[in-house]
Design goal:
The protein is mainly α. It is built from 30 helices and no strands.
Length: about 750
């Protein structure tokens, strides 16, 4: 394995290497020039921290325009909190209250995704640097000038030195998923090729879900944010249906045409996402898919009629006819979702006038007019302002921890109190277990850094030359180690770097290293205490509850089918989407907590059944025609019972997740063949003399029961994943933080 391959294994996309190199090449020279050439010690200090936090802790990605705006916002917001912190630096109560409000606000803003999570560290650091240092020591103008200079240096470096566009990386991953869908379907007659393509598809889907769960996930109110989220969900549904299409081979000539249309649609979507063509939504391929759908339905109905007529045994003929119908359903559903996928991809790329397919869950295009954006933003904030929401809890926890750190820094006799708040910020996580474990790592790493720094200071004695020589390497390691090597090594590197830096600013020898150990330990302990007091179980404890809500809303949506109103089904769809969004947020936070290994494949498996419910509620299968109630009333009633049984099954899963109980022993979901097949055959035979249109209505009834059985099968298949969620959500699970991370 080459050196580059080894680096990429630890550091995908070499993101940490880029950040560390930028910090070394920008922060150190900037600090040196301002301090040595101009003698501006205070401005040099603020410039260093502003550039370092902008290039390492924040590192805003994306295209040049949005990236520049993000860095400018960091400068403006940082200066604003510097003013607030400076004015409140003489007040313990005022400084603590403002810290709570600032930290809560910046953490809660992460509900909008995008760049919002990257503002936490700059805002917290800017406020801590100033609220703990009276204005008599450093004038306000020097603080503002230093922060601004460092921010602009970080902006320029981020634009010209190895930029990374996370949104582009996500779109590329989604394009890979779409291409893999096309390749799998295109190689349907070649078993080895299609299985290899299907494996690539699952890997790409897991990668996409992981990136959507990352800090820069697209969860904001803009149409492109909404479009990308919908695109991920549609691609998940497409992946599951593709598996079913493969299982339903061999296919008829008409099905093959429909599959070819889907291949074209998915490859077109991939090209759109890579901007290889002008994105036009589903307009480019929808007519072809609709034409193939119509031809496929007519062909299926004719084939079913022929199967009935060709066999002298009417029972066997009806069974053969229904088998023909069943084989067509996955292809029909996949074709609909292929059109949804193109529309979502166009929205994700910012195309405002894309057509929305009539059967799509999102029935109308989303406007980005200022008023609509404001209303959606308010609605998102209102929805997440809930004590049971993971992000709301994390915001309260972070605000309380940083407030306690500020109080300790103000009342204790320490020279550099902001190190206490910095220690709390570095170790704060979403659960007490994770925070405590990280606090122990922080203290251990600080002690390691203390030993290294002591050796450096003892060797250098009173000479500053060796310190200036060591500073670039220590800054590089401080930027590289936390993400690519490990938190403890990163903390040791950061300790060494700061001790060297502050020795250059305030020559105090070994005293600087000792104080660093003391203050970081206080900050780590304060964060751990708050973590123990406020929702110590963390995001993992919320996983079961959030997944339970997904299954509850799916059950409610299922009960609205077969006779429900359009308004009711629309409301059910919105509830399912909201529940899924809340669950995704909890999962995104839980991924970063210690304990039993969680991955995105588990998350994909959990939502196969709810995704199929979503497809059904969205209207993929037409509601039964009135004549069926008269001629096939018994079959229609049996289908309604089947629907209720599926809803009950979904509710039972939700109840198990809510109570964290064991799986019901011997629970085997009933299938359509157990008692419905004779009724479906009878309904088909009654429809046959009434013409092709009535045969199509009977086909819809067969489709309903096929979908319901598919949902039951997916619920049964998600058993191991449900066991995992129950296990990590149990009250005692968070206490396992002290053991090495378990892998499922």
């Amino acid at each position: 394995m080459t050196v580059l391959a080894r680096l990429k294994a630890r550091d995908p996309d070499l993101l940490n290497l880029r950040k560390a190199a930028r910090a070394m090449l920008v922060c150190v020279p900037l600090f040196a020039v301002l301090k040595l050439w101009f003698g501006l010690d205070s401005i040099a200090t603020f410039s260093f921290f502003s550039s370092f936090v902008g290039l390492v802790f924040a590192d805003y990605g994306g295209p040049p325009g949005p990236r520049s705006i993000a860095y400018l916002a960091m400068i403006v917001i940082g200066n604003l909190v510097i003013v607030i912190g400076s004015l409140l630096s003489g007040s313990l109560v005022g400084g603590a209250i403002a810290m709570f409000l600032v930290m809560f606000t910046v953490n809660f803003a992460t509900i909008f995704g995008g760049y919002a999570p990257a503002f936490i560290a700059p805002v917290a650091l800017a406020y801590s640097l100033t609220v703990l240092d009276p204005l008599t020591s450093v004038p306000l103008d020097e603080r503002l000038i230093g922060w601004t200079i460092g921010g602009f240096a970080a902006l320029v470096a981020a634009l010209v030195m190895w930029p990374v566009d996370r949104r582009r990386a996500l779109r590329e991953t989604l394009a890979t998923v779409s291409d893999a869908l096309g390749d799998t379907l295109a190689s349907i007659d070649d078993k080895d090729a299609r299985e290899a393509a299907y494996k690539r598809l699952n890997d790409a889907l897991a990668d996409a879900r992981r990136k959507v769960s990352a800090p820069f996930r697209p969860s904001g109110p803009r149409s492109r944010d909404i479009g990308l989220l919908q695109l991920v969900q549609h691609l998940e549904q497409s992946g599951e249906l593709t598996r079913r299409v493969l299982d339903c081979a061999p296919h008829t000539a008409e099905s093959a045409k429909l599959i070819a249309a889907c291949v074209h649609a998915f490859r077109r979507t991939a090209a759109d996402l890579r901007r290889e063509a002008n994105p036009r939504g589903p307009d480019a391929t929808a007519p072809t898919i609709r034409e193939a759908l119509d031809a496929g339905r007519h062909s299926t109905d004719r084939a079913a009629i022929k199967a009935e007529e060709a066999d002298g045994d009417s029972d066997k003929g009806a069974a053969d006819a229904i088998a023909v119908m069943r084989r067509s359903f996955p292809v029909f559903a996949l074709a609909h979702i292929a059109m949804w996928t193109e529309a979502a991809a166009a929205a994700g790329l910012g195309v405002q006038d894309q057509a929305i397919p009539a059967t799509a869950p999102e029935s109308e295009a989303v406007s980005d007019r200022p008023l609509q954006l404001l209303l959606r933003s308010v609605e998102i904030a209102r929805r997440e302002f809930d004590l049971s929401a993971v992000i709301f809890r994390n915001s309260l926890r972070a605000a309380a921890a940083m407030t306690l750190a500020v109080i300790l820094a103000k009342i204790l006799p320490v020279q550099h109190g902001f190190w206490i708040t910095l220690g709390a910020l570095l170790v704060l996580r979403s659960s007490a277990g994770a925070t405590s474990a990280t606090a122990l790592q922080a203290v251990a790493g600080t002690l390691m850094g203390f030993v290294v720094a002591s050796i450096i200071l003892w060797t250098a004695e009173t000479s500053v030359g060796p310190l200036w020589a060591i500073l670039p390497a220590s800054i590089f390691l401080a930027g590289y180690a936390p993400g690519a090597i490990g938190f403890m090594i990163g903390q040791a590197s950061f300790t060494t770097a700061l001790v060297v830096l502050f020795t250059l600013i305030y020559p105090a020898g070994i005293d600087t290293a000792i104080e660093r150990v003391e203050t970081v330990t206080l900050g780590a302990i304060s964060a751990a205490v708050i973590g123990l007091l406020l929702w110590p179980h963390g995001a993992r404890a919320a996983l079961a509850a959030t997944v339970a809500r997904v299954y509850r809303t799916a059950a409610a949506g299922m009960r609205g089918l077969l006779g429900g109103t359009e308004e009711g089904l629309g409301a059910a769809t919105a509830e399912m989407l909201n529940a899924r969004r809340r669950a995704d947020e909890a999962f995104g936070v839980a991924l970063n907590e210690r304990g039993r290994h969680l991955d995105t494949r588990l998350w994909l498996a959990l939502f196969k059944a709810p995704n199929l419910v979503h497809c059904t509620v969205a209207g993929l299968v037409p509601e039964p025609e009135p004549w069926l109630g008269k001629h096939c009333g018994d079959t229609l009633q049996a289908t309604a019972r089947h629907r209720d049984a599926v809803a009950d099954l979904l509710d039972s899963v939700a109840e198990r997740l809510e109570t964290l109980g064991p799986a019901p022993a011997g629970q085997t979901p009933a299938t359509e063949a157990d008692d419905l097949l004779p009724l479906l055959e009878s309904c088909f035979e009654r429809a046959l003399p009434l013409g092709v249109d009535r045969v199509a209505d009977a086909r819809h009834l067969v489709a309903w029961n096929w979908w319901l059985s598919s949902i039951q099968t997916e619920v049964a298949g998600a058993g191991p994943e449900l066991d995992t969620v129950v296990d990590v959500s149990k009250p005692e699970a968070w206490l396992r933080w002290s053991t090495p991370e378990e892998h499922a």
